[in-house]
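Following up on my earlier thread - several people asked me to post the actual chain instead of describing it. Fair enough. Here it is, all 402 residues.
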Amino acid sequence: MNYFSNILKSALIDFGKNKGRTILTSLGILIGVLSVVLLISFGLGLKEYIKQQFNSLGTNLVYLLPGSVLSRGGGFSNSSATIGPTFEERDLVAIKRIPEVVYAVPVYSKSVEVEANGKSEAGTIYSTSNEFFDSRNIKAEYGEVFSVSDVQKRDKIAVIGPKLAEKLFVNKALSVGKQVRLSGQIFRVIGVAESKGGGGLGGPDFDSFVYIPYKTGYIFNTDKKFSTFIIKAQSAEDIPKVKEEISNVMLKRFKDDEFSVVESTEILNAIGSIFNILNVVLVAIAAISLVVGGIGILNIMYVTVSERIKEIGIRRALGARRNDILWQFLMEAVVLSLFGGIAGLALAAVIVALIQTIFPAYISIEAVALAVGTSSAIGVIFGVFPAKKAADLSPIDAIRYE
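Reply from S.P.:
Thanks for posting it. Predicted structure:
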């Protein structure tokens, strides 16, 4: 133990004499480790973000979607047979007849300009039924959501997202009872929904939605077709049967590759598998900078060996063995690389801590182990050749070296 501690102490003394060179050489490893750890942290945070979004939804839900959404392997299919709104109200009625179905919710969405108080904001019309609010666990922060009778009467009423309410009316509470214009059509605001977040990472901005009764929405949805049905089963045990029954109903009008019946866990797993592959690719790209950092260590260690040839010769003349010289320079390379790795890890921890207030990124134990292990491995891999060169020097030739 004293043997390696003495070698380590010698390495640290040498680094102290060349602080600038030590920092610059470790910089490549620092950047590489920082990139890898941040990408892993962001990937984990992204998966957590998506999981939170799904957990905020209702339970026992099944989705009827256009096209072949999931492949047999569980990932998203790249051969969707149908694009755009497909399903009709008669499909909705047929699905509602399934005994294990509590309710079925139609969804039609369209991007519009929402106008009020002389202001105009980008928003999304969500033409749906009153059960949609239950399926998404959405409650009214102010006012109320529309009812089944509002849907049947085709009232021109709307529940708006809190972000839209703040932008258009400043005070969310005062927006209830006011009017908004959607593509030239005037609607009365009856409620402001609670904040659901979203809008980041290319996802939907739930707080900028305008929810209207789907029968009123035929003003915009002139084909009377829907892009999605959200179906609630009576229990989790009923989901397989509900999926089968929905498929049987839809096969009367569609081919089996023209629609998909999936539950939220399938979508979540498919998204997770995509992000896992994407994260591996990004980490592999970031790892290139680690190789560049390792080459920097290789170069500087060769320079160090050249500068200390006479010292090596004197040490060999005084009794140092070949392995002693090998371990000395190998230890210096590992410490140099490890210094950069730990510094990169520390900087990554600071950056992650700063963004955790807006995004659920975090550093895992695996990321820490990868950073430390990779740094050490790079030191060994790129340090062994200069160390071997130093160890192979002839003592007599080294002493005579000028």
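The mean pLDDT is 81. That should answer part of your original question.
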